[in-house]
Amino acid sequence: MERWSGVLRVPLHTNSGACYQVAASLCLSPTSKSLTVPSANAIFFNGDRVAGTRNPVIERLSDLQNIAQILVSKIGGSVNAWVIEASMFNGPFAVFKDFIPSVNRWGEPKSYDPTGFPASGSVVSLLSNCLKEVKSVVPQREKESSQAIISERQLNQPKTFIFGFSKGGSVVNQLVAELGFSELRSGKDPPQIEEDEEHPQVIPCTKESLLNSIAETHYVDVGLNSFGAYITDGDIIERISRRLTQGEGSRGIRFVLHGTPRQWCDSIRSWIRDEKDELFRLLQSGTERSGGKLQISERFYFANCPPDLQMHFEIIEKLDLS
After folding, report:
1. Tens of pLDDT along 30-65?
2. Mean pLDDT score, 210-228
């Protein structure tokens, strides 16, 4: 499948001063060369910046466009990949203030509060602005009737795969908290069409549709210099489990915890391993309560290697998404 790839600089809102860097690799129709409906949107939240390492592996895997290409190669050519870097940095530290209002100046969250659904709202707004930028350079197909769009969307509603790398895992935690408090949409409810959106099915266009579309959640060697690397609120996991049980059909969510000795064997920040183990335990309990609709697995990479910074980045290239 043909693709459009590039790195965009877009604001979260029209009057917002700060811009996000987003690498995108998007599916194109082989005939019209216009944007086409993907099988899924893979959304990857990057972490802190690392500069001056002179390590070619770290430099290559710090490049947003390279990460987008890796995601496509691992998930499949019918997926859209979006790699999001924070709009604010305090030195090397990423600060996802729009997504997690409670973060301090180092980008460390005090809590994961779903009130107002800030992370899901920010994702929808950011991807919508990215799509507008792409449409300015990619040919568009002729506008279809609303009924034709509804028919296509019912057949092709893309799933969403969420990835959080390093500090980007804090955004995943916030989305998980919001997922626990979101309303479950029945599969019988037809999607709503926004009249000014020619391709509303390419990305989720509301907070609710984003959260309802999440099929996989991947924690990729996440870690913080404070508590909160993994969400450990049992009530939220219980709500997600109950939400899946109440849903129709076989739709479920898969959680995968990917880690290296760099984070999981850090004796100074031992809470990272403790929080990972607690989240795994909570999700295992949720698997039983949801009748298997909530799935959990963990994967440990470079198990026999001493911890170093290179493995922390190299895990991106080694990700096992099977």
Report:
1. 888 889 999 999 999 999 999 889 999 999 999 999
2. 96
Domain count, the chain: 1
Q: How many Cβ atoms are within 10 Å of 48's Cβ, its own excluded?
A: 21
CATH classification at residue 119 = 3.40.50.1820
Residue burial 52-84, b: 16+ Cβ < 10 Å; e: rest: eeebeebeebbebebbbbbbbebbeeebbbbbb
Range of the domain at 88: 3-318
What's the pLDDT at 188?
44
